[in-house]
Known about the structure:
Layout: H1 33-49, H2 58-71, H3 94-107, H4 109-130, H5 137-151, H6 160-174, H7 183-193, H8 198-213, H9 219-237, H10 244-254, H11 273-291, H12 294-300, H13 303-306, E1 312-314, E2 321-323
Antiparallel strand pairs: 1-2
Amino acid sequence: MLAGVDALDEPRPEVDDPADADLTEPAERGPSLNTIIALILALVGLRIGLAPLHDNSFFTHLATGRIILDTHGIPRVDPYSFSAHGEPWTVQSWGASVIFAGIEKLVGLVGIRVLVAICCVALTQLVWRLTSTAVTLLGRLVVAVPVIAVGSGYWVERPLLFSLIFTMALLFALEDRLDPRWLVPIMWLWVNIHGSFPLAFVAIGVFLVGRLLDRERPDVELRVLLWAGVGTVVGAILSPIGWDLLIFPAKLLSRSSAFAHTTEWEPPSLSASAVQMYAVQLVIAVVLVAGARPQDRVALADPRRCWCSLPCRCRPAGTSCTPA
């Protein structure tokens, strides 16, 4: 899956006797360093994913999935809380709930741990693959390792995990490394699995601004925007919940005061290791921008390049990025 570093082909010595040709064949090369690192990251992802189930919201998603499978319908009112019992409820993550409950019904909770492990391994490989255009191995590590370190605190058994995989697919499309038409089924799934799907359009906007800063035509970004938009509309049309899925994130943000004392909605704390690693990424990005030559600062601060790989030292606009 991962492309290693290709060695330059050396001229082969001429052989007078064809029978001696095998003697001049170069020794078979072992796995490249890139491949070895990819395997190590896969093991890290496996370790993260096989951790015991512990996320507090997982059990609500699982219980909701059980209700959906038992009743063959999605709850429309709150069946859980005491203070809002019977009030209208939009089950934004109904798709993830069905996945969790379906796997539990087939093989038990261990199946969910295996699913999380598969997703975590996939994320490590996608992150590593996304950095494959870097000029140096060190540059790939500087970008990938902090991303995976941040993810180690959030890659757990919740719908967010699926949305991260969808995000990676979107980034590959924005890098023109994935046919954007794949975003139709991807966005359909994203809309029905997690309410973070509007961030796809934030990412597209960031890349589009970066392209304009480079004074280039945003053809790739516009194609991605088109097919992502089609997939989002399809996600609402081909859904048992319908258009409420698309407006639910906005409704949720309008009630942010109700979540003031909820841990997930509180400002990030530097006491968390994942937040510390993200802060390190931001500091590196600021230092590189501040220390760059004036003619390189626009390229370095290009939002397309800073969206996923902040620690970059970029060539002038319109050329490729060179991670330090």
